[in-house]
Prior knowledge:
Shape: globular
Helix content: 25-40%
Largest sheet: 5 strands, mixed
Amino acid sequence: MHSEMAKQYAQQLEADDTVICYETDVPLTGLKSRVSSVGFRKGTLDGEWTSDFMVVQQNQLAKIIEIVDEEKLEEKRWCSEQLELSRRYWKAGGVPGWKTVIMKRGRTAW
Length: 110
């Protein structure tokens, strides 16, 4: 996991009885074939990207959870680009759930 905040969120997932399993640092493979570069800065799709969590709950549906440090929201363009890239990728891949969890000093803020 990339951050202490992600580790703390993983602990929340482990305590959730509706969660069957989860995977961390899920790679966004084949990014250029799934996501249009429209709306992104040049070269954005060239990097290696991962999503923080893929969670499978009792309903057997997968969802993606991206963890964002509240302080990083000040870097608006970078942060919004990264989140939009993830959202588009998973939507194109047919994953029904996607959300952002904003953490403040290790606690869920929103």
